[in-house]
Amino acid sequence: MRSTMNVRNGLAAIALAAGILTLTACGSTQAGSPVMPQAGTASAPVSTPASIPTSAPTSEAPTQEPTTDPSTEEPTTDPSTEEPSTEEPTGSPIGDIDPDLAAWATNMCTDMGGLLATVFAYPTLTSDTPLGEYRQAFVDYYANVAQAASTALGNAQAGHAPDVQGGEEIHQAFITYLTALADISGNGAILVSEATDVASVDAAVQQISQEIGDLGDADFGIEDGSYPELQAAVETVPACTDMVSGG
After folding, report:
1. Structure pTM?
2. Which of 12, 31, 237, 238 might form a disulfide with 222, Cβ 3.0–4.6 angstroms?
């Protein structure tokens, strides 16, 4: 299955990306795939700071004059030739995007990326898998989706909407979507846990998938293509471009 998410179709698709991709991932809920996944894994992208190499001890070169005679060496910091590469707005790698907007987009896409990774960790089991194992795999799956959605929701609620056109609408749509997804998935884990046979598990999964699919189809009052600054951020911020590059 392939993601249909494409940033060029408008920022609304990005804000509701999890809904669209959840529908794609969960639209086929029929058990029977021959591979048993690692149930309950939730992978979220975590950025780790690059390690700083230890500096080697410096040795003095006896043939070089300390700093008194610059005439024999060509200066390497001529402002006329180096000017373009030394001035970077606000030290940011994202060009003209406002730093607050870039931070919001980075947080949103990072959280969404972690959520989607969890969504795509979908159980694939055969129908002759023992009931306890079969049921628990889906309980773990929906519990993990609920946890990932709740984590992203908490981060969104702790932040603030970007101060650009449509910023409040998108931010609130993000919160509304995550709230509903956490509720559906959490309740889904309970529903699956109460199933008494494989057929009941399948029926519960179908129901949950339908609810998540309907959520992904909702527009939350967002009008496609009406958020130029937000769309520019999504097209520029690495956390977002990495997430949608395969769309």
Report:
1. 0.63
2. 12
